[in-house]
Design brief:
Number of domains: 1
Radius of gyration: 18 Å
Order of helices and strands: EHEHEHEHEHHEHEEHHHEEH
CATH architecture: 3-Layer(aba) Sandwich
Largest sheet: 8 strands, mixed
Shape: globular
Family: Belongs to the short-chain dehydrogenases/reductases (SDR) family.
Organism: Scophthalmus maximus (Turbot)
Structural class: alpha/beta
CATH topology: Rossmann fold
Oligomer: single chain
Number of strands: 10
GO molecular function: oxidoreductase activity
CATH superfamily: NAD(P)-binding Rossmann-like Domain
Helix content: 25-40%
Keywords: Oxidoreductase
CATH class: Alpha Beta
Strand content: 5-15%
Mean pLDDT: 89
Distance between the termini: 41 Å
Protein name: Retinol dehydrogenase 13
Length: 315
């Protein structure tokens, strides 16, 4: 097993104490008639999130890069939940062209989007670039979801009250945004810092989007799901470290439990109208100080708009 989020420099004892624990969403809310879009839904937290929300009666759109795995996951969820309204759609967040095609399909084929869960991510991969030349982690984890969310905003507004949920990470606390070199073109690549930058960007994006959406009925929140056994960290080498030991594997949550925070933010009645917040599992917490910097959040929005789609954004 590997863990959903880990960055060097964190005290392991405190990390385990505060971020391994966390139970199930206690809300019994069902969502018949509501449409939920989940990115990265063919495995791990995304798949379990789609499964749980399908059990609650939602119409689930699973956006995934690997269509073979996505189709298999959708079929499995339909079989387990007896909900026929679970669909696999191609979405490659490392491609602006693919993101635009996916969003256009949603806008044309779906009457509404009640919940958008920006779940997909990559972690500590090599110095890869997206199709459009962005550093892979910044491109997929932040820019891809930034563009997708903005392309679906009209549909979300039409469906209000609606919710956007961004999967962030505890790793944001050691992240910093380097506006001079967001894509690691002029400095030695550090995959850990690149990941932490992308996760800080998730929280900053959440706060800035919430500000821009005031009065629309669309809320947006970020969540760290806890320490979860998934294949997200397959590039980290943790599978060859002490973290792969049988003892440590007992301390991490399985994807079903890892999905509970996303489910909570998607369905909980007590969160209606709550926006711009950061959740550590299912508890609202104040994020790191650098995630509260409104000027940095504004600059990141403008930089993201220029990079992902010049002239697109006017919400």
């Amino acid at each position: 097993s590997v863990i959903y989020c880990m960055c060097s420099g964190l005290d392991i004892g405190l990390f385990l104490l505060n971020h391994v624990t966390g139970g199930r969403c206690t809300s019994k809310a069902t969502i018949p008639g509501k449409t939920v879009v989940v990115t990265g839904a063919n495995a791990g937290i995304g798949k379990e999130t789609a499964h749980e929300l399908a059990k609650r009666g939602g119409r689930i759109i699973m956006g995934c890069r690997d269509m073979e795995k996505c189709e298999a996951a959708a079929k499995e969820i339909r079989g387990k939940t007896l909900n026929p309204h679970v669909y696999a759609c191609h979405l490659d967040l490392a491609s602006v062209k693919s993101i635009r095609a996916f969003a256009e399909r949603i806008k044309q084929e779906e009457q509404r989007v009640d919940v958008l869960i920006n779940n997909a991510g990559v972690m500590r991969c090599p110095a890869w670039k997206t199709e459009d030349g962005f550093e892979m982690q910044f491109g997929v984890n932040h820019l891809g979801h930034f563009l997708l969310t903005n392309l679906l905003l009209d549909k979300l507004k039409e469906s209000a009250p609606s919710r956007v949920i961004n999967l962030a990470s505890l790793a944001h606390i050691v992240g910093k945004i380097d506006f001079e070199d967001l894509n690691w073109e002029n400095k030695k690549f550090d995959t850990k810092q690149a990941y932490c930058q992308s996760k800080l960007a998730n929280v900053l994006f959440t706060r800035e989007l919430a500000k821009r959406l005031q009065g629309t009925g669309v809320t947006v929140n970020a969540v760290h799901p806890g320490v979860v056994a998934t294949d997200l960290g397959r590039h980290t080498g943790l599978h060859q470290s002490q973290f792969s030991s049988p003892f440590f594997s007992l301390l991490v949550k399985n994807p079903e439990l890892g999905a509970q925070p996303s489910v909570y933010l998607a369905v909980s009645e007590e969160l209606e109208g709550v926006t711009g917040c950061y959740y550590d599992v299912m508890t609202e917490k104040e994020p790191a100080p650098q995630a509260l910097d409104e000027e940095v959040a504004r600059k990141l929005w403008e930089a993201s708009s220029r990079q992902s789609s010049p002239g697109l954004l006017n919400c």
